[in-house]
From TrEMBL:
Transmembrane regions listed in the UniProt entry: none
Protein name: BFN domain-containing protein
InterPro entries to which the protein is assigned, alphabetical: BFN_sf, Bi_nuclease_dom
Domain named BFN: residues: 1-132
Any Pfam family hit: BFN_dom
Basic and acidic residues bias locations: 147-162
Gene3D superfamilies assigned to the protein according to its UniProt record, in alphabetical order: Bifunctional nuclease domain (3.10.690.10)
One Gene Ontology MF term: nuclease activity
Source organism, top-level taxon: Bacteria
PANTHER family from the UniProt entry: VON HIPPEL-LINDAU DISEASE TUMOR SUPPRESSOR (PTHR15160:SF1), VON HIPPEL-LINDAU PROTEIN (PTHR15160)
UniProt-annotated stretches for the region Disordered: 132-162, 175-199
Length: 199
């Protein structure tokens, strides 16, 4: 596992879907994950310390853990299978460590509320992570081409265009602007989406 932090929550210009950008601690490697608008809003509210009148779903989950004398230790992005990211909530209950299956978006919304570490499996970072140095520097003729992620290989083999929008977004992402605050997209009508690329 490698530790990551939430770098930003963004909106794709091509389809208006949300994407959270995780950045590896002490490295310039990024992990983009598609998330739904509700989860994007939940993460952004916590990141910007916006006060809400009543507890939202992730606030309720945090309050439940506290009331049950349980403590969220960390959250994890553990795997990427069939274009879907999988995560865990790691919870300490009376000294016993429990791993609870979770969508990464929900896990991240919990992490920013509980101020706990976010970890990503090294295999996930190697498969779906992007390196700005590789993306920004021209390739020398003698240099080997950068390794394609497994999901890109699967797309070519199956002749599928399911990840075409995902690839297009990653190729055109402006890594210099990742530290800038996201645009206000609160006027967008919400529609729940899983933590996976749009078909």
């Amino acid at each position: 596992m490698v530790e990551v932090v939430i770098d930003s929550v963004r909106v794709s210009l091509t389809n208006q879907q949300r994407i959270v950008i995780l950045r590896e601690v002490d490295a310039e490697r990024y992990l983009p994950i598609w998330i739904g608008p509700y989860e994007a809003e939940a993460i952004t509210i916590a990141l910007q310390d916006i006060e809400v009148a009543r507890p939202q779903t992730h606030d309720l989950m945090k309050n439940l853990l506290t009331s049950l004398n349980a403590r969220l230790v960390r959250v994890e992005v553990v795997s990427l299978k069939d274009d879907v990211f999988y995560g865990n909530l790691v919870v300490d209950v009376d000294g016993k460590i429990l791993e609870i299956d979770s969508r990464p978006s929900d896990a991240l919304a919990m992490a920013v509320r509980a101020h706990v570490p976010i970890l990503a499996a090294r295999e996930v970072m190697e498969t779906a992570g992007i390196l700005p140095e590789q993306d920004m520097q021209p390739h020398e003729p003698s240099a080997p081409a950068p390794r394609k992620p497994e999901w890109a290989k699967a797309e070519e083999e199956e002749g599928s265009d399911r990840l075409e929008v995902y690839e297009d977004f990653l190729q055109n992402i402006d890594l210099d602007s990742l530290s800038k605050p996201p645009d206000d997209d609160s006027s967008e009508p919400p529609s729940s989406e899983p933590d996976e690329p749009s078909p």
